[in-house]
Design a protein that fits this description.
- This protein is mainly alpha-helical and about 130 residues long.
- Helices cover about 65% and strands about 10% of the residues.
- The protein is built from 6 helices and 3 strands.
- Strands 1-3-2 form a 3-stranded antiparallel β-sheet.
- It is extended, with a radius of gyration of 21 Å.
- The two termini are about 30 Å apart.
- The model has no long low-confidence stretch (mean pLDDT about 85).
Length: about 130
């Protein structure tokens, strides 16, 4: 006979998960991850980010950089030149996050074949026509 975990309610889960989910939503976003990876090797200019991140619009790059700066993950330095030179760099907290992203990437690479095989096996066992029955 299985035991039920009666201490877990949606209120308990949401109370604990909400602050963490907010942070994860920000740092795990498609553009945030790419910016963090691009800036991991030192200061990078806006135009370098724009050219280096395929598919990102200028507006989305601007918004994502502002959010990362607001969250304390990126610093923005304006050099007093003509035209102004603006560089973005990772903070120590973001460098720690980058290390975690590298570990996650390594895990994904090590396990991608396992996951592909598990998906194929599942799809074979749960054919779409069987779900309609």
């Amino acid at each position: 006979m299985s035991q039920r975990n009666t201490g877990v309610t949606s209120q308990v889960v949401n109370a604990h998960a909400c602050p963490v989910r907010e942070v994860l939503d920000r740092v795990a976003g498609k553009w945030s991850v790419q910016i963090l990876v691009a800036a991991a090797h030192g200061p990078i200019r806006f135009t370098e980010l724009e050219r280096g991140i395929e598919g990102i619009s200028r507006r989305m790059l601007t918004l994502t950089l502002r959010n990362l700066e607001r969250d304390g993950l990126v610093t923005r330095t304006v050099h007093p030149t003509v035209p102004p030179k603006v560089e973005y760099d990772l903070t120590p907290v973001a460098r720690e996050l980058h290390e975690s992203l590298q570990q996650l990437t390594a895990w994904a690479e090590r396990n991608r074949l396992y996951i592909a095989e598990a998906r194929a096996s599942y799809d074979t066992e749960h054919r779409p026509d069987e779900l309609d029955a």
